[in-house]
Known about the structure:
The protein has helices at residues 66-75, 103-111, 115-125, 136-149, 171-177, 201-204; strands at 2-7, 13-18, 36-41, 58-64, 84-88, 159-163, 185-188.
Amino acid sequence: MRRHWLAREGGSELALVFGGWALGPAPFALLSGSGDVLVVDDFRDLADELSETSSYDQVRLLAYSFGVASAAHWLTSVLLKPSQLVAVNGTLFPADVERGIPPETVEATADGLTDASFARFCRRAGLNGTPPALDIAAAQDELRAIAQRGTAPDTQFDRIWIAKRDRIIPTKSQETAWHAQAERVRLIDAPHQPFLAGQSWKEWFA
C-alpha cells in the first residue's frame, strides 16, 4: 500500500483513510481539521501492518469506495482497533451484481483502461479538475486483485455515508449492501466523490 501524509505534526490522534481506486489523496486534501492524516491506497497487496499507526493514542478510520472492502479485509489481520470506523460510498461487496459493482463491469474497466477511459471515470465520479496521474498496469492489477479478493468480512461501522447521485457504485446497490446496518446509514446529496472544500474531518466522523 502507498502512503500519503496530508498532515504529520506528531499529535496523539490520527485520521487513517483507505482511499478509492486510482484517485489518490487529492479528494481528501480539501478537508480541514486538526490531527495527523494518513491516506493509503493501492490495494493490490494488503500485507502491510501500517506500523506508523501504533504511535497514536487514537486512530479513526475512514474508508472510501473500494477502500471500504479493502479496510475490512485489512482489519482482520492487524492489531489496530479504530476508535471510530466510517464508510463512504463503498460496500463490503466490491464486485457484486446487487451490492457493489457487477464483476463484468470491474473486469471490463480493467481490460479497457486507458488515460481517456480513466478521465471519463473521474468525470462520472464527480472529481473536479485534472485526473490524477495513472499507472495503467498497476491500476488494472489493483482492480483485479480487489475483485479476486472478494467479499470482505462482516464489519460493523459507526457511520455509513451513501451518496444519492453515485454513478460508480449505484446508490441502490449500496443501500442493499448495508441493509443490516441501516440505522447507521446517512444519505447525502452528492456524487461518488463527495468531499468538498470547506468540509471538515469532524463532519465525516460525525
